[in-house]
Amino acid sequence: MPLEDRLTPPSTKPHTSVARVPNAWYVAAIASDLGRKPLPVTILGTPLVLFRTARGTPGALLDRCPHRNVPLSAGKVEGERLVCGYHGWAFDTDGRCQHIPGLVSQLDPDDRARRAPSWPAVEQDGFIWVWGSRDIAPTSPPFRFPELPGYTETRRTVKAPGTMHATIENALDVPHTSFLHGGLFRTAQKKNRITAVVRRYSDRAECEYIGEPRPTGLVARLLSPSGGVVTHFDRFFMPSIAQVEYRLGDDTHFVVTSACTPVTDFETLLFALVQFRTRLPGPLLKPLLEPFASRIFAQDAMMLGLQTDTIQRFGGEQFESTELDLLGPQIWRLMKDAERGHVESADSATVLYEKQIELLT
Amino acid sequence: MPLEDRLTPPSTKPHTSVARVPNAWYVAAIASDLGRKPLPVTILGTPLVLFRTARGTPGALLDRCPHRNVPLSAGKVEGERLVCGYHGWAFDTDGRCQHIPGLVSQLDPDDRARRAPSWPAVEQDGFIWVWGSRDIAPTSPPFRFPELPGYTETRRTVKAPGTMHATIENALDVPHTSFLHGGLFRTAQKKNRITAVVRRYSDRAECEYIGEPRPTGLVARLLSPSGGVVTHFDRFFMPSIAQVEYRLGDDTHFVVTSACTPVTDFETLLFALVQFRTRLPGPLLKPLLEPFASRIFAQDAMMLGLQTDTIQRFGGEQFESTELDLLGPQIWRLMKDAERGHVESADSATVLYEKQIELLT
Amino acid sequence: MPLEDRLTPPSTKPHTSVARVPNAWYVAAIASDLGRKPLPVTILGTPLVLFRTARGTPGALLDRCPHRNVPLSAGKVEGERLVCGYHGWAFDTDGRCQHIPGLVSQLDPDDRARRAPSWPAVEQDGFIWVWGSRDIAPTSPPFRFPELPGYTETRRTVKAPGTMHATIENALDVPHTSFLHGGLFRTAQKKNRITAVVRRYSDRAECEYIGEPRPTGLVARLLSPSGGVVTHFDRFFMPSIAQVEYRLGDDTHFVVTSACTPVTDFETLLFALVQFRTRLPGPLLKPLLEPFASRIFAQDAMMLGLQTDTIQRFGGEQFESTELDLLGPQIWRLMKDAERGHVESADSATVLYEKQIELLT
Which of A4, A44, A71 is opposite residue B310, by nearest beta carbon? Predict the structure, then answer.
């Protein structure tokens, strides 16, 4: 009813970098956040309620009671069932209605109309994972986070106000670090000419940086005072995992693995696991690194928010890429092919695309 | 212009339990709230201004000055007229423009273009009532609240974030009281098998509960320590009145009558009058019962809000009823028939529908 | 996705008094507000970034980096360039991309895809002016504010929540002053019959008030204790300037010139210059007059906001004018003709329309 302003910014095609890949596991919550209280979450725009039964089994149902459409997340867990807070209808982890208080007539738990739609849910690596589709059963277990014995670990959850593609492109993008995080990690003075090799496989993409000198920023000098050879890989695993691996000489090894969850088209939750070992003892370094990590994550989230606001304001994206946008286009191709149901049948080891790019760093 | 998220919760038909019945009186305000200051209200989605002239007559006009479309509720009352705050155009309770400051030429108060649309308005039972239609004149006076001499009375206004149907169904629904208001009124242990008789007439519906024992909750035990026969009726009067009548033995008698006003499709104002007598003196009991009543009303409003949020999020309702939903379907039929202009011609005493339902309580 | 309420206020045509005139200069900012930090502004619904280079030249670009669509206003100025805060792309005042950090390949600043659209921008009379169109080059310099040596000046910026037409009509409307600003300036008792002469030219409109007595309000009595002849002109210059000129006898002369900027269809920025001389010394009078001016501007902005809310709520305007609406219809005709590209070819001195109206004041 309210009149919309007739805005006239330069017209932009309504395209956005949104690709929906439902046949995949996504992290729905940190396992320890799911206690006796049901937890409302949204995945791929669908409101779900997570709950954990008395035996500890996780369940994921549509967050809507079939009776009068109140959210089941306003209810409570009793034994193996989630009980609606309005009239007490009780559902098991398969969404079957097992009890309706006051009803004299016989109850059929398989009555479809009384059933709450359910999603596959499992607990793994400290997360509750939910399979994004009700139509196709899970074809594999969730992504396994690296096991790196002796490494120091820290976890972090970031609410990124951007598409899953923009969030992952940002997590794996090198050039922006000199500007957005300028001084913290890389500096704006670009003197070194290095080579990046981009490869796409049927289920992942990666970028290897060759000839990269030790970064000149504060943190890098702290970690590796004597310099040393840098090994640096940025990796994407379909459809939602971003991984940065960094070696500085023999002592320093960082792996940051982020599982991304598309909450809605323009909001992504990023569950990051940072694993590292350095010359310095991890427990000593961890409290020093955390403010640094917080700032990086906050700057990225801020920039993704500005990007999303601009895209929404103009009614679409108009991105102009250069060869420095190394992984973004490959990630987009994999996501979009999967959304269309078109997945290349090559085995996982076959390189489907490879390109070398010169850049200054 | 902003892009909408492409959400994909399970598709739901855009149906909602909204029935608009304009040919009826609705409570627009509590009479004592309408003083010298004009009062903006919304009924059936239409913004109105209520005002009371110097003589005390209530008026209801469209809340928009015909001149430059500012709300008349930003003006003031002068004598028998409501004067716009922008340029001083002055309207009587019929909406006729009686004065335009500065104008030299002759003013015709019956000039339609300068007239503010007006609605019938009367004061009765401590409320200002407005007739919901401009096209059809009132065919009867407003609903009369019960007169119960010697009873203790308390009034309460609740803003319910739900459709008028959902609000009335909630007000007359028994099964939810054990859950949503669990412990306060009824308890979740259901041991008693009772009978409910539902009847629909041409202009109302009712449910009579037969064989109901004294409720086991705290309040019931307080009011009727020795038990006694329960008489319990839930009644609906077209299109907006919900009434619960409860007798416990000879001493205790409660009548809660609620006049509902559809502010917009998903917001309802409920003006409740609670009338009771008990073994205990009313003035003593009233301050004890009020926190209890407040909690009940707040819990119901909260649940209606969650229901509305869920319905709007999914783009429609998908209700699955059982035989325990005693009055809701009958109320819906009466409302929807009236919206369509289809009213059964039977006299008011004829039972058009009757059904007995067994239930546990 | 969320269901909209089916509101049913009386149906209103979706017409609103919005006319978009892009081929004109608009004040984008106060010159002193544009320092080293880029400034986001919106003109005619288009998000722009204003910046000032090291040499002091103002630039106006679309507030969107062509690379990843983040707002350029989140960047910073380096020398003669505006540098994006995400990846460091650097643009000159013509919007040409002059540098992409890390890029090895040759950069062509005239590459259209990498260019940020730019708008003509100049600094004049203490304001940054931006030409509203990218398609047609400026055909004249911006409007010149009056130069009145020896006058006291005060500037004021008002955010008016109304269309540019409603804001200018309000600024040049006499009758509302008795009501909205009642007592401050004119009083509601209207005893004097005066004549107004309205004239429209090809590029402006004016209203001359003949026979107006000294206003009876407090301020007027303060300024001109002995009365005297009043000369009063209200003027509109296409498409965005409102001017009120007031003389009371020989001593008192007020000129209020307001440059309006259509931020969006329903939000207008008004940059006012008040110039005056009186019998009393200006520096002494200025602090006394400012609270008075503040109240006038705040009351007008409040009323424009109520008007806009009502128009949006009803889905359109339905204005009923009288002969007292002296300039509004002439302003609308000039604006609407210009929006349609239809401008009368008469020279600036030719009176295209003239009418005398009697009114009470």
Answer: A71
